Amino acid sequence: MSVTLRILENLTSQNYSGFVRVFSTSTALLHQKKAIVLGIYTEKKQENVINKTETSETYDKWLEGKLTKLLSLSKPIESGSSRLFFGTTEKCSIVSVVSLGEKNPQKNNNESLDIRRENIRKGIAAGIKSLKGLGIENVEVDVTNDPTSAAEGAFLSTWNYKKSEREKCPLSISPLNSLPDNETPLNGEDIVKKWEEGVILAEGQNFARHLMDSPANLMDPTIFCEEVKNKIESCGTKGEIKVIIRDKTWIEEQKMGAFLSVAKGSSQPPKFLEIHYTGEQNESTNPLVLVGKGVTFDSGGVSIKPSQGMEEMRADMGGAATVCSAILTAARLNIPGEVIALVPLCENMVNGEANKPGDVVTAKDGTTIQVDNTDAEGRLILADALCYAREFNPAVIVNVATLTGAMVVALGAGATGVFSNCDEMWTKLNEAGYITGDRVWRMPLYELYSSQIKPAHLADINNVGKGGRGGGACTAAAFLNHFIQKETKWMHLDIAGVMDNAKQEVPYLGSGMAGRPTRTLTEFIRRFNE
Question: What is the pTM of this model?
Answer without folding.
Answer: 0.92
